Amino acid sequence: MAVRTPLKLDGSNNLIEMSATDIENIKLEMIRQYGLNPSAVMTVVASGGLNVASFGDTRYQAGAAISGPDAFPVETTTAEPSLVTVTYDRMNHVDTVLSAPADTNNKAFPVYQSGGNIYAMTLTDMRDTFVDDVVDRLTAVGTGTQQAGTYRIHTATSLAGHTLVSATPVFVDTRADLTLYTAAGIPEAVDQPITITSYYLMRIDGAAVGTIPTPLQITAANDLQQYTTANFQTLLQNVIRYYVGNVAGYQMDWSFSTSAAIARGSAVVNTALTGVTGNFQTRNDAAANLYYAQEFPNGTVSTIETRYLGVTRI
After folding, report:
1. Does any domain span residue 234?
2. 237 falls within a domain
3. DSSP E strand boundaries for the chain
4. Residue 102: pLDDT above 90?
5. In terms of residue numbers, what domain contains 67?
6. How many folded domains does the chain comprise?
7. Residue 134, Cβ neighbours under 10 Å: how many?
8. Which DSSP state fits 265?
9. What residues contact 247, with CB distance under 8 A and at least 6 apart?
10. What's the average model confidence in pLDDT over 255-271?
11. 21 in a domain, yes or no?
12. Percent of the chain with pLDDT over 70
């Protein structure tokens, strides 16, 4: 590992090494630049999302109604409520394919001194000095500005410091709506759900622009000059986007897990009513001389499964 200390100009235009605070401010700007243009991109699709595990919402639906001409069917002849599962695979993760930032004549990156000589950093030096720690922060459990450009789950379509990826939820927890099942309505439609909670994908916003130290670089004429702020910002963005999107060990793997330790935002909870025998109801249609019976969902609310969105550096 080659961690370098870039050179800068002091107030008297002398060459000095950057301070630890300077290095930290450059890392913060690299994070901010990644947030402006991420290379590990998640979108929301109707179905068939790539690289993020799917899982199901479960609920119970009524059994089918049955009828007879002379008497009400007995409970043992009616269908019990049955389980409905809707699979959600709406999160799509795609890495942006990028070439390594150009380093024409080995002069693209900031300079440092060693043994009294001045050298230009290599892309590997940039990785070791800045990128490695930045990727650790981007993939940490938090959901603050140091995770800019990465993602979390939320239970509403707006959240301060975040941008909604899509108004289409990535998961919807439903249960049988017991208010819609009535004896007077038999034969009732078997599946009558109510939405309990919708879960949305959010991208974390970056911080406001902070202090941006500008190191020195070697020009084509082999002179030293200070980067312009804009050029240095572009360089930082190109470097971090390349590593996160393309280089093993710095990429991101997004997944849903049962471990709360990795949670990015709200827990995604699948609940259902867990009645054992169903709610047996009857109705007589005298005009048609028919006796109906049907079993509705019932019981208490139970958590079937809880998942958490998380990211791993791979």
Report:
1. yes
2. yes
3. 7-9, 15-17, 40-44, 55-61, 66-68, 82-88, 91-95, 111-114, 117-120, 151-154, 162-164, 171-176, 193-204, 216-218, 224-226, 252-257, 268-273, 279-285, 290-296, 301-313
4. yes
5. 7-313
6. 1
7. 25
8. B
9. none
10. 95
11. yes
12. 100
